[in-house]
Amino acid sequence: KMGAMMGGSVGLIIGFIFGVTNILRFGAGPNGPLRMLGQYMLGSAATFGFFMSIGTTIRTESSPSITEAFARSQQRPIIIPRQYLKRQQDRKRSE
């Protein structure tokens, strides 16, 4: 829903700019300026909204196994203090 709303909003603005530009350059035609501008705006909003909703769905949807694997990869290993001290002592002995 969010992608469709964002795409629709952007589409309305782009349609307004593109529509006004074309009406000023080429004239409104037989439908009149407001109807022609509305057609530009609605067509652009529908197109942008459709593609943004698909893109948002693809980007945010994930399977539970992928989410779990990502969470496991982000975990940092826990080092117990004794093990850490033992590693330091072993390193000092090897030097």
TrEMBL record:
The chain crosses the membrane at residues 6-28, 40-58. It is found in: Membrane. Its main location: membrane. InterPro entries: Romo1/Mgr2 (IPR018450). One of its GO terms (biological process) is protein import into mitochondrial matrix. Keywords: Membrane, Transmembrane, Transmembrane helix. It holds the Pfam family Romo1. One of its GO terms (cellular component) is TIM23 mitochondrial import inner membrane translocase complex. Belongs to the MGR2 family. This is Mitochondrial genome maintenance protein Mgr2.
